[in-house]
Structure formats: C-alpha cells, structure tokens
From TrEMBL:
Stored InterPro entries: YneE/VCCN1/2-like (IPR044669)
GO molecular function term, any single one: chloride channel activity
Record protein name field: Uncharacterized protein
Biased composition (Acidic residues): 267-278
Length: 460
C-alpha cells in the first residue's frame, strides 16, 4: 500500500477512496448486509465539476486494489452510478445464502473469553475437576512425605521416592492414545460430512422437482401443483423431526398447556408437537399447532393422516408419488416424464434411510469404551510421573491435560450424530421452503416466462 501511494504521488495524482457500509436489519432482511465501495480517482487539482477521467493504468490499479468490477451508467435508486464505483452485493435477496460463522486465528481472544460457556467444557467438567483434585492430592501427599523425610528422617518419608514413577510408560502409550483419539474424531467427522451431503441432496432434489413441476404446470394443473409444492416444502421439516429427538411431555405438563395446542386449531405459540400416552393401552395422542410449519404446508384433508403416520417424511414421499402418478397423459406429458418424477421422489425417499443409518448406527461400543478407559487410566497415573517435577502445580497441569484429551474425545461424541446440534437443519429447511413455495419461488417464476425466437410463452 505504501508503494502504491508513492507511485500515485509520483504520477501527480492522489487517491480518495470512500467506503460506505450500510447494514439493513429487519424481520424480512435480517442478517443481510449491503456493502458499497465507491472509489474515484481525482486529479491533483480537483475542480467543482465532475472528476477528470482516469487513465487505463489507473483503472487497472483501482480494480486490483478493490478486487471488484467497475460499473458505469447503471441506475441505482434512480441515480447515475459514476464510472469507477464498485458495488458488492451480499444481501440474501440479491442471491446471497445464509453462512455460518467462520473462526480464524484473529478470534483467539474471543475464544478464550468464551471458554467458560463452552459446551465441550460443560460436558467434560466432571473428569476435568476430578483430575485436578486427584493431581493435587498426589502432589500434596508427595510433598508431605518429602518434608517428613527431610525434617525427621522417619522411615515413612521414604515412601516419597516410591510414589514417583518413570515417565517412559506414558511416553510410549501417549502415541497409541493419540492415534485412538484421532481415529475417533476422524470417524465422527466423516459421519458429520456424510450428514451434510445427505441434506445437500435433499436441497438439490427439491429444486429439481419444483423446476420440473413448474415446466409441466399446464399438464399437472394449478391445484395439484400447489399440493405437490406444499408436500415438497414440508418434507425437510418432517425429516428433521424424524432424525432429532422428539419433545415428550408429562401428562401433567400437557394438561396445563393443552389449550395452546390443537390438532385442528389455527392458534398456538410452539412449533413442536406433543405426544401423550392415554391410559394403559399405550395409544399415542398427538397434538400439533397447525398454524405453524410444517403442518400449514400440508394439503387440506391430509393433515390427520400425516400426523398419525409412524414415518411422516416417508408418508409425504409416498403422497408425492401418488400425486405424480395421477397426472393424466397429454401431448407433452407421458410415462417418460411420470417416471422421471417418480425417480426424483425415490431419491428423496432414499435420504430418509441415509439419515436413519447415521442416527441408528453409533461408533462400535467396544471401541468407544476401550478408548475412554485407556484415556482415564492414562490420566489417573500421570500425576505419579510428574508430581516430582511440578509439585503442587500438578493439579492445574492435570486439569489442562484432561481438558485437552477429554475435549478431543467429546468433540467426536458431539459430531458423531450431526443432526442433533452440529448441523443447522432449521436453516436448510427454511431455505428449501423459500425456494419451493416462498418468496424465492415467486422470484424463480420469472425464469419460466419468455417469448423468444421459436419459443412459446410458458406461463399463461
């Protein structure tokens, strides 16, 4: 940047760069940011009129500095955009997608500050505290025995030498422990990534089905198309409920909140459904808030059938297949198109089994137990190897060691089932709903309209 400034001064010009950040946060555009960078090259003696035109070399430097594409002559809020203005679009309404936070090395202070609220630390607080007090106890006993031997020369003080053991076993076994932990974490991450790919497949299939249904809207019919799109938008929500734990309430709690939930009502404050066991026959009674997603997306007359189904996303997939099979033949719609629809719905149904495979197949019990037993034994014997060096600081040292090793193990446990807390499934479900029946779907409709050379208008 200094060399660039010197180069500009040598050319007799100076740069004036204005950076304007505008963030718009509202209920409809929450989290959307529009960043506009205006860069103009002024002459050494600027006049009150328009700025002097810049040379091609200056434009290259300007483009390199801002890493953008200059635009000129475009209307912006009814105003003319001067040449050289760089506009960055990050608003989701202009094509952006929700992004999860990325943490870099520059966030180290924030990560240290938020350590007490870490979910990993909360889960491993038991072994960390135990290792701290265990290490402190061993170091205190060693210190007492050492002082007794020095001051009195009593024979019991000689036990201090027997408490301390060599570090060789821990050095040899440390490599094996590290391999076990790394393998455990890598296995869990592979399951996490597989889960993300499954939901990427659900997103892509939803887009493909909605696109094809829109292309054959005349053959499908407006009413059937609306039913199919509602079922398609409800599918990811029901799949999320399938792979995440259900919220079961006690009968007493349910009776107090019963007025807020109804199978057929339109009011309510919760999105979750409630299941109550009536009597001793084990019959499940389900109460849902039909004014909330996904129940409001289901076609009328199908709500009760879907609610009482054992596998709700599979029921939606079956219903979608039924809707597509019942499309009558026409000059533009035949068995070939019908089979394509059925094939896409079949792939959507495959995602249910793929998610169930991850949920129902944990890491083998023998491997998990052996790893945690090995880790516990290694940590409990480590104070005997280091108390001679660290003294009373053995307790804090052991707490750090336990936090590191047990934390690695706990990370593997948390991402082993990615559908519970790691993947933001609600964001994916909302994105699919918007693209199938929401505002993004209404924006997509313009792609199916047009009249060009040898081309008919698709929409009425």
């Amino acid at each position: 940047m200094l060399l660039l400034l010197i180069f500009a001064l040598m050319q007799g010009d100076c740069f004036t760069i204005g950076l304007t950040m505008r963030s718009t946060l509202s209920s409809a555009t929450r989290g959307k940011t529009l960043c506009t960078l205006d860069s103009r090259l002024w002459s050494k003696k600027p006049s009150t009129s328009n700025p002097s035109p810049s040379s091609p070399l200056d434009n290259k430097w300007l483009s390199w500095m801002t890493q953008g594409t200059p635009t000129a002559g475009l209307a912006k809020n009814g105003k003319y955009i001067p040449k050289g203005e760089i506009t960055y679009r990050e608003s989701s309404s202009l094509g952006g997608i929700p992004r999860m936070s990325r943490y870099t090395a520059s966030d180290w202070l924030h990560n240290i500050y938020t350590l007490p609220s870490s979910s990993v630390l909360r889960q491993i607080s038991g072994p960390v505290n135990f290792c701290f007090w265990w290490g402190f106890l061993i170091s205190a006993i060693h210190r007492i025995l050492t002082r007794t031997l020095i001051k009195t020369g009593h024979a019991i003080g000689s036990l201090a030498d027997h408490i301390v053991i060599t570090k060789t076993p821990h050095s040899l076994l440390g490599s094996a422990l590290g391999l076990l932990l790394v393998f455990r974490t890598n296995t869990a991450y592979a399951r996490f990534w597989e889960g993300r790919k499954i939901w990427e497949q659900v997103t892509s299939l939803s887009r493909d089905i909605s696109r094809m249904a829109r292309l054959y809207e005349r053959d499908i019919g407006a009413a059937k198309l609306e039913r199919c799109m509602g079922l398609l938008a409800a599918f990811p929500y029901l799949l999320r409920q399938r792979v995440q734990p259900r919220w079961l309430m006690k009968k007493g709690d349910f009776s107090r909140q019963r007025s807020r939930f109804s199978k057929y009502g339109e009011d309510g404050e919760e999105e979750e459904d409630i299941e109550e066991r009536e009597g001793n026959d084990g019959e499940a009674v389900t109460w849902v808030n039909t004014g909330k997603t996904p129940w409001r997306l289901l076609p009328s007359g199908t709500l009760e059938d879907c609610i009482t189904s054992q596998n709700r996303p599979l029921w939606v997939a079956d219903r979608l297949g039924t809707e597509f099979v019942s499309i009558p033949d026409s000059s533009t719609f035949s068995s070939r198109e019908r089979l394509t629809f059925i094939s896409l719905v079949g792939k959507l149904s495959d995602a249910i089994g793929q998610c169930e495979r991850i949920v129902q197949t944990p890491v083998p019990l023998n491997y998990a137990r052996h790893t945690i037993r090995f880790l516990t034994a290694w940590c409990l014997t480590l104070p005997f190897a280091v108390c001679g060096e660290f003294g009373l600081a053995t307790g804090p040292v052991m707490s750090v060691v336990a936090w590191t090793l047990f934390g690695i193990y706990e990370i593997g446990v948390q991402i082993e089932d990615p559908f519970q807390r790691t993947l933001k499934l609600s964001v994916i479900c909302e994105g699919i709903e918007k693209e199938v029946v929401g505002e993004q779907w209404r924006a997509r409709k313009s792609a199916f309209k047009g009249r060009g050379e040898g081309e008919e208008e698709i929409d009425e």
